[in-house]
User: Fold this.
Amino acid sequence: MQLPPALRSRLVGAPGAAEPLPVQRDPAAGAPPFHFAARRVRFPRDHEFFEDGDVQRHLYLQDVLTQVTEAPERPRVPEFTCQGAGCCQVFDTLEDYEHHYHTLHRNVCSFCRRAFPSVHLLDTHILEWHDSLFQILSERQDMYQCLVEGCTEKFKTGKDRKDHLVRRHLYPADFRFDKPKKSRGSATPVATVQVLAEALGDDGEQSGGDAMEVCSEHAAPLPERVGERRTYSHRIPSTICFGQGASRGFKSTKKRKEHR
Amino acid sequence: MWSGRQGRLRPVGCVVEELRCRRREREAALRKARREQQLVSKRLLRDDVLEEVEGGCVAKILGEAEIQQFLRLAQRGTEEKERERALVSLRRGLQHPETQQTFIWLEGSIRTLVGLLTSSQALLQLEAARCLHELSHSEQSAVAEACLPATSYLLTYLSGHSSDFIELCLYTLGNLIVESEAVRRQLLPQGIVPALAACIQSPHLTVLEALGYALSQLLQAKEAPEMIIPSVLGSTLPQHILRLLQPGPKLNLGVAVEFAWCLHYIICSQVNNALLIYHGGLSTLGLLLLDVAGAVQRTEDAGLELLACPVLRCLSNLLTEAAVEVGGGPNQLEDERVVAALFILLQFFLQKQPSLLPEGLWLLNNLTANSSSFCTSLLSMDLIEPLLQLLPVSNVVLTVLCNVAEKGPAYCQHLWPGPLLPCLMGTLASSDTEVVGQSLELLQLLFLYRPEAVEAFLQQSGLQVLEQHQEEAQLQDRVRALQKTALHR
Assistant:
């Protein structure tokens, strides 16, 4: 298909158009037995007209088509240590470090050192756990905000909010970022004891089932897994409250092997 | 663009012919799926570099005991590295459908995995997310739907900051979205639209491409026009999508492809296209078309048609909106460079992707149908002859020529003398009734507004050509009318 050479330069030229030629229609045009009428055409979603293009799109999604650019290089760097407070993790790729940093050091509560996945959840936590005014105000008005981005509902109690999360937003009943505030121990700032943190090692994260916080609540017994034996049995007694460690995750249950 | 990450594990020692054959099979399957309105594709994000580091050998199928052991180690292991290794082994095993099946039926397995997903150990979190991603990609509904308990967390993590992790979450969500309406009925109340609207402000290109993918999956759903698109249009997503489609040095091809398809699904659902026009959609898309045409001339890159296609469709469908009918102002597309760009793309399609020619010509029809400006541009930029070269491709060429001719004598003056009439003699001789019918319409307009052309028609044995169709039911009335006009000139 031969294109006029001036076309390419027109493309990079200034916007605009030549003065349109005068339109002058004769009523006989398109009159019976003829029927032509200039009109724009629209095609709906599922029209077969789109079949070819749609198939090409899906071939691309399924990676059958040729890729266009190369994958970015993931360079390995000399090992380095995270500079976050009390953190001693070592990394050799920037991507791993980035994720670690964002998970553990980015949205950290300065009162209790818990880390949160987003600014929104951190703000909510600080408000509900560390703001004494919040407690007072919440007796008079609905202060517990829904955790779902975009939902502006507020509630009288944490429980009401949880019910809302479950019923309206189909959240799991044990959503890990909606822990009830502990009754004692968290109003006072917790000492961050560096040495203790390291001695404890990093959070032996216990996942699945119970998600109780340390310090004041007794943990519910773990659901037994099929065919598994417990390797240890104690929780930290509720009267002892360790320095929570430099970087606490959202799950702060500590489990320790019982040394005999 | 979608970086060179592998899809499935590539078969070793694959011959080019095998690849082509596989592609043909895939294509046939996709066509069939589309006709049954079951066109669904999932994306698998697997890191090549990671595979290499881990030894690159094909992962083996894991049994129940092995899975339990890995889970136990990942969850309760004392040494960090040990826990990570266990989860990595699990993840590699989950590349196998058999392992996936065994895994999901194991009691507590998903619960444990979700727990690891929310662990404070970043690398465990990442590996757990990779495990979920493998599951999400499965063709078995039971396997993909087993991931449902994780969705509230995946959505929560979209507000985070770790771009790799967010990207992984987005692709996983994108895979789950297409799984079934039941899945979407969970994701929508969980706030997927606001979560995406917040996440789209990320500066990371990989995140944006993944988000575009996930959103396109959501918009493609059967129930989207009623259940999904209204809330998408009610969010800030449309403005962000148009922002990301602005041409310029910051335009990323991979990101643009995804969001162009998003826009196409929104527009062709015809929910509220006026809103998109209000936000400058026509102008953005027009400029984008220019950009693509420019790119097409510069590189031999395969893949530009993946962007050209949805852009053409969006423009074409938007032009049919009533908001565009009113002349003048920002709602109008009046830049003749758009026509130039379109022809450059038509030439590109002719060489690389002929199946897209009808779509390009459809846009040309919609540009010229009600616009004296664009019809004039066709003439002033000498595009009639190139257009005629596309006659064998589609009847829409004739329709476009009619669009020009019906505007009156000033236009037909430029159509004859010229190559049009000889071409018309060719199409009039066609055995295709549709083609002949369109040609007759064009001929009537030409005779009406350019009577001098009649003589030339007769000299080129036009009457004999017309006679061929005298008995054809659909054509005879028009044939007779033209014969009469020609003889009574």
Q: What stands out?
A: The mean pLDDT of chain B is 88. The CA atoms of residues 16 and 22 of chain B lie 10 Å apart. The radius of gyration of chain B is 28 Å. Chain B has 31 helices and no strands.
